[in-house]
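Reopening this one. Same input as before:
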Amino acid sequence: MKRLSPWFLVAPATLLVMICLIFPVGSTLAATFMDAKGWLAPYTTFFSSGFRRTVLYRTIEISLITTIISVILGFIAAYVVAHMPGRLKSIMIIAAVFPLLTGVVVRSFAWLILLGKNGILNSALLSLGIISEPLTMLYTEGAVIAAMVYLFVPLMILTLAGVLEGIPKDVIEAASSLGATPFAAFRQVILPLAMPGLIVGAVLVFTGSFTSYATPQLLGGEKQMMMGTFLYQRAMVTFDWTGASTIAAIMVAVTIVIVVLMTRLARRLNPMAA
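Same output, byte for byte:
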């Protein structure tokens, strides 16, 4: 009986995960292999369409660019925050967390006000004489990337701040005393030790960007459609549930591949990171 007691303790949580996550996802994936035209017909239909391939490639491209920019900006900000005095550090972390307290839709609407033809940025450029007519900044890849970087950089800062703060200063000082340049100390000491936080943050940013709906819909529109908006269109507009399930399955597969690649990269840079 004592041997079975741990199983009884985890059984409620396991059952909840199976009911709320595994079964719905499993049924969604299974639906894509039950098409009357063949078990791979939905995937053949998806990849034979140039428009659908473009949506997939655009989504991967935007998500990767967002992840790279967020990692760079988040690492710099987290490094600065991690080396601040205690009270100032707390204030900066609160400042980083504060945008997360506002809804995604609200923050995306703020970018509409910033980037619109009559928005703040165009008005400022016109008043300074830099441009003679308003620029078209909305419904472009740049607008979507800028908004998503703004959304996800706080996650990177929160993920990396604690990791960078936990790196002993003695290790960095030892590397410097042995003749390592600041860049060499960063590449050989700080970066490998920060790799667990970098990988976790990068995975969070990529998955969030890849599955994002509100921001691409508001700032990208039909011209810059991404997989999240395409999934919603298939399911809620055309009621093509098999097509929507196929899109969801492809999104799950791409996410898993990216996570595996990031994990392998972490192992190469730091065997203890994964």
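So the earlier flakiness isn't reproducible anymore. For the record, The CA atoms of residues 118 and 199 lie 39 Å apart.
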